[in-house]
Specification:
The chain is mainly alpha-helical. The chain has 13 helices and no strands. Helix 2 packs across helix 13 and helix 3 packs parallel to helix 8. The longest helix is centred in the first third of the chain and has 34 residues.
Length: 291
Amino acid sequence: MSDRSNIKFTKAPGRRKDLTEPAVIRWLLTLIAVLFLGLFLLLPLAAVFSQALEKGIAVYFASLHETDALAAIRLTLWVAAISVPLNLIFGLAAAWAITKFQFPGKNFLITLIDLPFSVSPVISGLIFILIFGLQGWLGPWLDAHQIRIVFATPGIVLATIFVTFPFVARELIPLMESQGRDEEEAALVLGAGGLQTFFKVTFPNIKWGVIYGVILCNARAMGEFGAVSVVSGHIRGATNTIPLHVEILYNEYNFAAAFAVASLLALLALVTLAVKSVVEWKMGEQFPRHR
């Protein structure tokens, strides 16, 4: 039997010593981070707006009101208005199925959701050309029925949907997994239907995640270049989105107009960052462990 009288108790220190780097190192790291952000983020952003306004505010607004620019803006908004709601529906359905049910092919579905992250947008655009182009698999049939997919708005919408569909689903899957199924099962036991359970129980818990995913999806949809460039055909006033119109203006050495139109995407990026920060703050309040 051990002698407990020989056990010595030491008093825990009242204040834990901070395990951190010296002040000089912390200031140096902070300075490097600020310089990096200024060089690669703030400086290019300032350059865009300075070049856009270099010839005056009248030229700036004239560039935005030019016929081809307005057509590019309308097409970009139209493509985003179609692709974002469709990806929202898909993301909600996929996240619901993956997190609430067990079924054959579940891992395959997760792999498909991640596919656009591993495939180059240019390659995805080329795949649409090989499927729907005139010399593609469905091209002769589409041409015989006078249906245009590539080099038209439908092809741009399909390419945009493909490159953006992971954003909502990938934001909701870990969020819904962390919540579990207890609340939904309790609602079902109490007599709630499927849709009633979703809108009354599930959706209130994931609404900020939905908004966050939609923000990212919309930003990518309006700024996508690679896949859209392949399937659009670069038809001025018809199939050029804002990024493609900026490229054409820049290649024509019309720098003032190019930067003026590009400033719209820069403003979109700033608004996206601001809304994204607010949503992240709200999600941090609701789910401290998620962020």
